[in-house]
Amino acid sequence: MLTSALAMLFAKERKVVAVDCDADAPNLALWLGGIKSWDKIIPVITSAKPEIDYKKCDGCGLCVENCRFSALRLTPQGKPALNPFLCEGCGACEVICPKGAIKLKPVQNGEIRIKRTRYNFPLVSGQLFPGETGSGKVVDEIKSEASAAAKAMADKGKIIMIIDSAPGTGCPVTAALKDADFTILITEPTPSGFADLKRVLEVVNHFKIPYGVVVNKWDINPKFSNRMEKWARGKFLGKISYDKKIFQAISNLTPIMETNLKAKNEIKDIYDELKICQGQ
């Protein structure tokens, strides 16, 4: 919600590229009003799966014993069989096989979709296919395509790339944070939300990225929200109220900035505070 709104606000003053780097569950397109058809779809091949040559395989079972993900098992016929949904494509089986019967083969594990939105900026969105691995590598490819889209706009003024990251601290988050100039950390006023905020902040500080904090649904626990605001001190950018009508808006594919909801003005305040932080 916040990424889509900030993209729309920045687009009024700057050239923008919106990027959905939540490869496991991309939904930025929904917050921008939905996409009926994409201008461009690019296959992503950043993963590999083993292929077994059963003519060479003697059924020694070393590949099964050394697969830490339990993706290989021995069949009653004494031959290894692969469960592709458990395989991480690490290549241990290829290395350990004494007969050279296993070779890693590249597989398409996702795709990138590009669309120029009705708000006159491109959206670059990536999707990791169900059951596939390598979300961090997919995010790298998404950002590469987004950079290409930005370069294509280079003669049209300074460009800002606004990235929607996955939650947590996993590979796609690390990949999304890499090379970022500023990070907005969005949390909720609960003990678990506060703990998660501190965890992701360790990653942000590791990359030495300036950051700001936003508390979403602050009014479900005002006392705890105030505690988080005091903790953030000068890093606090603002807060957004809880409102069931937000869910109605997204269900109707209506961007928040096209509503009259309280969250709209609260996000505008965050946008103004963000510009002050960036010296704009």
Overall geometry comes to: elongated
Q: Give the proportion of residues in helices.
A: 25-40%
Strand content: 15-25%
Ranges with pLDDT <50 over ≥5 residues? none
Specify the biggest β-sheet.
Answer: 5 strands, mixed
Could you name the CATH topology of the largest domain?
A: Rossmann fold
- Arrangement of strands in the largest sheet: 2-7-8-1-9
Q: How does CATH name the architecture of the largest domain? A: 3-Layer(aba) Sandwich
The rounded Rg comes to 22 Å
- The counted number of beta strands is 12
Euclidean distance between termini CA atoms: 23 Å
**Structural class category:** alpha/beta
Nearest-integer average pLDDT: 93
* SSE run: HEHEEHEEHEEEHEHEHEHEHH
| CATH homologous superfamily title of the largest domain | P-loop containing nucleotide triphosphate hydrolases
By CATH reckoning, the class of the largest domain would read Alpha Beta
What's the tally of helices? 10
List strands and helices in order, with pairings.
Layout: H1 2-10, E1 15-20, H2 28-31, E2 40-44, E3 47-52, H3 62-65, E4 72-74, E5 80-82, H4 92-96, E6 102-107, E7 110-116, E8 122-128, H5 135-152, E9 159-164, H6 171-177, E10 183-187, H7 191-206, E11 211-216, H8 222-232, E12 236-240, H9 244-251, H10 262-277
Parallel strand pairs: 1-8, 1-9, 10-11, 11-12
Antiparallel strand pairs: 2-7, 3-6, 4-5, 7-8
